[in-house]
Structures are given as structure tokens and as C-alpha cells.
Amino acid sequence: MISDGVEDEEKWLAEGIAGIQHNAFYMHRALDSNNLREALKYSALLLSELRTSRLSPHKYYELYMRAFDELRKLEMFFKEVDRHGCSVVDLYELVQHAGNILPRLYLLCTVGSVYIKSKEAPAKDVLKDLVEMCRAVQHPIRGLFLRSYLAQVSRDKLPDIGSEYEGDADTALDAVEFVLQNFTEMNKLWVRLQYQGPVRIKERREKERSELRDLVGKNLHVLSQIEGVDLEVYKGTVLPRVLEQVVNCKDELAQYYLMDCIIQVFPDEYHLQTLETLLGACPQLQPTVDIKTVLSQLMERLSNYAASSPEVLPEFLQVEAFTKLSSAIGKVIEAQVDMPIVGAITLYVSLLTFTLRVHPDRLDYVDKVLGACVKKLSSKAKLEDSKATKQVVALLSAPLEKYNDIVTSLTLSNYPRVMDHLDNGTNKVMAMVIIQSIMKNNTCISTDDKVEVLFELIKGLIKDLDGIPVDELDDEDFKEEQNSVARLIHMLYNDDPEEMLQIICTVREHIMTGGPKRLPFTVPSLVFSALKLVRRLQGQDGDVVGEEVPATPKKIFQLLSQTIEALSSVPSPELALRLYLQCAEAANDCDLEPVAYEFFTQAFILYEEEVADSKAQVTAIHLIIGTLQRMNVFGIENRDTLTHKATGYSAKLLKKPDQCRAVYACSHLFWVDDQDGIKDGERVLLCLKRSLRIANAAQQMANVTRGSSGPVTLFVEILNKYLYFFEKGNPQITSAAIQGLVELIRTEMQSDSTTPNPVSDAFFARTLQYIQFQKQKGGAMGEKYDSIKV
Length: 790
What we know:
By secondary structure, this protein is an all-alpha fold. Among the domains are: 1-121; 126-266; 284-414. The chain contains 39 helices and no strands. 41% of the residues are buried.
């Protein structure tokens, strides 16, 4: 059915073009023979083809262009009076005898163009006559193209200021009146086209109307080009008349297109000075008009205008641009009750962008926009619409991008209230955007109240929202989120210890709600941040009278003890143990023996009760030994207790090689190479001998279970410990003992039951080379090594 209609239309178009070509042939012949009467006769017949009602606008345009080309030739003929011998006044009368109204008016416009050019009559009179007579054609398509032709031929003949057709003082207003009148009539015809034909082809009609819109919009472009249209004329005549037509036509397509045209074709300074009038029309438009796009474009143009000329910024304040735009947006949202939430938020995003570009220093304006958005969002439950969510993220991201400083955004009271309306997933995305902004700009958050606001903003990363379990999250994403929070904690700093302690307490309050999966990521950062503060306060162990929470190391260590205790119950005992040891080391530097002892006690309790995995036990005992070796705060009794515990646990490890290595590591607890360090040679030797026995037992066990005793690596490692203490001057470690150990290793290596191992062989060879090197070096050390035979 549709294809038949298309074929018919093609046929009708072909017939129309054939008719134009046929009559054009005779018209050309008449023009060549200077026969005016024949020329008018065939030109009228030619133009009669435009009387058709059967073509769509697209096809009618093709036909119109054929006729238009012929009319240009006819106009050239009319200009040459000596060819047709008729004055332009008589010609103007003559063409009015054409039989049909449409050809008559086309001919009248053509002659009218020549009439104005001849200056035999004022341009304003001829134009007024033509625009009035064109009312005779009320068919939408035919009328639109006729008036388009009138606009085309008169465009360069308007009585504008500075034009050759300028008459008396008010002629510029006559030009404006002519264009406005033509525009008004064309718009009426364009709107009427919507109501032609049956309802079932409504969509096709809308498409056809959309194709014709430039014919109407061209009038506004002509208006913007008229020199006489200054701000006063625009404000008093042009804008009110155009807006009256826009509002009264009550057509969605026309209102949207014409509002867009007004914004695009007239200068920005005019928009700024007539903002109230322009915005006043917006709530009066049809509810279905996409007003958000129109207003967004207006605000974008004004923003660009402000950015291009900083000297115009006072004008924005003078006309109260922000207040007017804000009020207009509120009225539009109120008037268009069916406007989707995404439309309203898009308007607020545009207003916020405008505010940040034009009034970046006015944080109260920024907060007001966010507040209006909160009010709109409050009427809905959590956002479900993904497009609306994206717009909210854009709204919240705009201040971050503008100020490059989260601290500024934290002063906006409505910022967190907007975030509360995001769904959990988007809340996290926004929280990550905030953290990335802080990292990118290296922003330091330095006050407790700002930290409170910040952590309220990123609460989606810190705790489970609305009872959604953390197990539902992707593992990689979760780790990235929590590592970001951990990095953020290091960006919180204040030179004042009191304020810094308050910040740490605030952070602790928030992160302790994170649950077992989050604490292992966030607690270490908090602990190290607190330990940094402890280092700054070293030596202040007394309480300050009159202070509610004095920032002293003791107070901070109490806080840390409670924090790590929560971590150990997660359970994450290995991490908690490491943190206890870090705190013990810091307490050692602060010369707080009871505190350090308590942290070690907690570490040992964790080791005993929670660390069950054999590999984790090995790592933990070596950490304990390493930390304890660096401690110098303990008295003899406390140190003996702790070293006894460490050596006892070392000997109880599951695997013999692990036992051996832990026990010989304990030897360092009895020989600290400092000026005041402990130097107990006997207990060092005791540890080394014990490790030798364990190594020997390991060899025998391997022999029993595998039929071979395995490599001699452990013996070589113990030999290296002997050499270390021998060089440090331990009197219990003699050259004879080293010589005996070397011989023992050689015997083991030559034994049939020992499995050859290139690594341990090379290790032993390098150790012997070292002994040889020390002997050859000479001096006191050379003498010590001299008695050892390798």
C-alpha cells in the first residue's frame, strides 16, 4: 500500500516537472522574442503546477526549485524595461490579472522585487502589500513555499539602516514588522500542517513538518541580521512578538524548534539582558516540549559568553542571571509534572555547570543548586533509572573537577544529601571518584569535621549499606575499593597533635563498622597513621591536666590496642600479630617498657591461640625474634621472660628444619651488637649447639624415612652463624668449634647416605672461600682465622 503511494507520488512529481518544462520552453521563446504577454501567460501556466496538493513536502520542494529557477530568469527579463516596454508600476498591475491566485502571487512577488529595486515606490509599502496579499493562500504547504519565496526575494531589499532602500527614520522597524508578519503567518501554516489528513499518518506528518522547519526558522535568522535590531528593538518588539507566537501556537514541535532558534541566532548579550522575558515563556510551553535541552543550550551559551569575555561578568551579577535561571528551572519542573526525574536532574547539572563557570567563587549558589536537586530527589525513593543516576554522578563530579579540591566540596552542606539518594552501586562509584580526586590532587584533609563529612560521603565503601552482604561483591573490585580507602587514610594530616588524634579517633569510629572482610585492609593504615603521630610525640608520656583527650603516646597506644584487638577477632591473627609487634617497637622508641611488654604479650597470646598453620607459625616466630632483638627498653627480668618464650616456641615448630632455623635465629637475642647491648656468649653457644642437635636429628629422620639423609644445608647455615659470632668476639665461639663443624660437614657430604645437592655444595664452598679470604687478609681478623684449616 505504502509502496503504491510512493510510486504514485513519483508519477505526480514527474508530471509536474514535465508541465513546468513544457511551459518553460514557451516562456523562454517568448522572453527571447521580448513578448511580455506570452511570457506572462506561460509563466502563469508554469506556476500553476505548484497548485498541486498531492505531493509530500519533500517532493513539492523539488517541484518548487524547478519553478524557482525559471522565476529567476523571468525576474531578469522584468528588470530590462527596454525589452518589454512596460513600466514597473504597470507591470505590477498587469501581473495581478493572472487567473489563479497562486501563480498571481508568485508573479507579484517577482515583480515586487523589481519594483523595490527600481525605487519608484518605498520598499516598506511594496513589502507590506505583498505580505498582506500572501494571506490569500492558506494551504499549509503551498502557503509556506510561497512565503519562503517572498522572504527569499525580499531578503536583500529590506529598508534596513545603512541599506540603499532605507527611507525615513523608522524604516528599520518597517523591515522588522515585515519579517515578523511573514514569520507569524508561516508559523501558523506550519502548525496547521499537523492537522492535515488522517490520524494514522501522524508520525509521517511530523517527519514532513520537521523537514520544513528551516523555512520558518529562516525568518528569525533574517531578523538577527537586520542592523536596526539593536538591544532596545529586540527587547521591546522582536522577542515579545516571537515569544507570543511560540507560546500561542501550542504545538510541541514548533515550540521546541523556535525556542532553540531564538537561542542560537540572536547574540548572547541580548539573551543576558532579556533573560527574564525569555525564561518567562518556558513554563507556558506544552508539557511535552523538551525544555531541558533548550534551557541547557541557553546556559551553555551564556557560560561560553562569560568565559570568552571576563569583563562581562559584572553584567551577570547585575541582571541576577543565576537567580533568574534557578527560579525558571524551578517553575518549569513544577509546571511539567510528568517530566521524568532524569530531565529535572539534567537541568540542575546544566545550572550547576553554568554556576561553576560564571560564579565559581559563589559556593552558596553551588549549594543552592544541590539543595534544589535534593528537594526533587526527596519526592522519589532510591533512584532506579540508570540515566538519572549518571546525571547525579555528573552533578556531584562537577564541583570536584572545577575546584580540584575535595575540601571545597566538603563545605557544601547539600553534597552528602545528594549522595544519599544514589543506589548502593553508584554510591560506591561516586565514593571512588572522590578518593581518586583526593589522590590526583594530593589533597590533605586536615580537620576533624571535614574528615567526618568525607567519611560520611564514602560510607558505601566503609560499611555494608542496607544490609547488602559484602560476599556479593567481585573480589578484585572489593580489594581495589578497600585499598583506596587505606590510601585515603594516609591523606589525613594535621600538624597539631590534638587535632590529629581527633582525626584518628573519627576514622577509627567509621572503619570499625566495616565488618570482618574490610578491617584487614583499613586497620593497618589507621595503625601506621597513629604510629606516625606517636613518633612525633616521642617523650611525652605524661597526662596533660585539664585535657579531655590528651595526645600522648600512652593514650594512642591504648587506642591502638583496642583497634588491633578487634582485628584479631575478625579473625586475622597473622596481621594482628604483625601490628602488635609494630606497636611494641614504637613503644620501645618512646621508652614505655610496660606498654611494649603488653604488646609482646598480646603477640604471644595470638601466636599460641590463633596461629595454627605451620608456615604462618614459622613467619610469626621469626618476626617476633627480629622485633625482640631490636628492643632495648626491657629490664633483665622482662627480657628474659620474652626471650625464653621465643626460644621455647622456636623449638616446638612442627618441622625439624624450621625448628633448627628458628633456634639459631634466637642466638641473636643474647648478643646485641650495640654499645649497651646484651652480650651473653654462653647462651648464644647454647642456642647454636641446640640447633646443631636439631639439624642432626633432621638428618637422621630423613635417613629413616627416605633412605637418604638429605642435603647438609642446615649445617652450613649454622656454620655461618658460628662465623658471625666468632667475628663479633664471642669468647665461647672458638676456632676449634668452627674447625670441628667444618669437618662434620665434610664427613656428612662424603657419606653414602647423603643426597648430593649442588646448591648446598656451592653454599659450603663459598663459606670455605670466605674463611680463606679472612685468613689471607691479615691483621687481627687474619690471626683469629689462622688456626682454622680448610
